[in-house]
Amino acid sequence: MIRCDKDGDIWTVTIDRPDKAGALTKAMLAELADIAEAAQAAKLFILTGTGGVFSAGADLDAARAGLATDPVWERLSAGIAALPGLSIAALNGTVAGGAFGMVLACDLRIAVPKAKFFYPVMKLGFLPQPSDPPRLVALVGPARAKLILMAGQKVEAARALEWGLLDEIVEAEALIKAAHALGTDVLVAEPGHIAGIKRLTT
User: Fold this and answer.
1) Which H or E run contains 2?
2) Mean pLDDT computed over every residue of the chain
3) CATH number for 40
4) What's the CA gap between 12 and 50, in Å, rounded?
């Protein structure tokens, strides 16, 4: 359900569970975290999915069993945020719930036009993972973060781009190609130079 394809300095990690809208189990999250922590040599790290939804967040059965508040979510987002290379969330569809964390931890976010973004923690009675609200506020500001986290708003791709939650909207067939294009300069740079610029912009 998790694929990791390595092509030289490019690591492409895919959530491949389209029959369950990319819903995440603890084992899937642990595998994603393992991959992120192992990807220190990747100059370009791309996170994507299959089907019409990137991820609906926690698998419902797993969430009821305690996954919604499990520290594995923070481990995953911390692993992605700590990568010295350029990380890009190439979103093939909607992002919901806890799946927001790994997306917010990426350096850049691109998405297909039909993608939507929502994080229904107020309705579900859970707190978001600790690092998610500050990252969301840094991108969209406090009021818009409250629209998502407190007012339960579903944000469509065009508005997400306007707000700064997205960096580009790309047609589905060009999504991975667009992610590669954004990494062009990174792929020909020295690792230390990449990491140095990332430190200055984080």
Assistant:
1) strand 2-7
2) 95
3) 3.90.226.10
4) 12
